[in-house]
Amino acid sequence: MRYVLILVAVAIVGLLSSIFIVDEREKALVLQFGQIVRVKEDPGLGFKIPLVQEVVKYDDRILSLDTQATEVTPSDGRRLVVDAFARYRISDVVQFRQAVGVGGLRTAEDRLEGILNPDIREVLGADGVTSSTILSADRAELMARITARARARARPLGLEVIDVRLKQTNLPEQNLDATFARMRAEREREAADEIARGNEAAQRVRAQADRTVVELTSEAARSAEVVRGEADAERNGIFAEAFGADPEFFEFYRSLTAYQRALNGDNSTMVLSPDSEFFNYLKSDQGAE
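Structure for Protein HflC, as requested:
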């Protein structure tokens, strides 16, 4: 009975070790002594010979590879550092196994990167491709050309390159300082031009304001002289009319005005000759003699 249980256990273990499962995200190779004997691409259960055959599974999903930044020189001679990534999948597991051996995805990605970087440099450094082209909307066409070249060269590896994209396109580190200095000088020049134009406009406004002040002052002075002249004429007319109506009263009024002006403020001392007519109206109550 004990031997029966052992045989049953061995049979169960053997059965379990002969079964393998492939899900929808994988493809599998059945190897016998390192040689491919069967390919299983459909998901589900598979069978192999225990202790003789082994199963190697590969990812059947779309994979991503970020390449190392590479330096390119477009036709205008302006060097750029390009950072790219690729989307790819294993299209033929048999060819993939034969190409990369036991290295698997690590070896495949190293070899794929060795394909992508030269293609990127060759396409971006071709005649007619400038740094402006790479940085413009035309880069989509350049990426399509890189993808087509990489797809053809990666096919012998059992890989299908789906897409290649440029993530970043920068200047080399040693050129950044010079570029920033040039940009700073350009902005300073623009600022100096703006300041000069502002000063010129301020000078024009200031000159116009000074001219307006002079014109307004001159106009005001002229109007004041006209008004003063009209007032003097009116005053003289009043004086003439008063003189014509009563010459003696007019003379008396003129004398009082002269007294007021002569004795204005603290000035109460005057030196006159005895025969002066200045105080005639003060010497007699009969008026001037």
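The chain has four domains: 2-59, 63-170, 175-245, 246-289.
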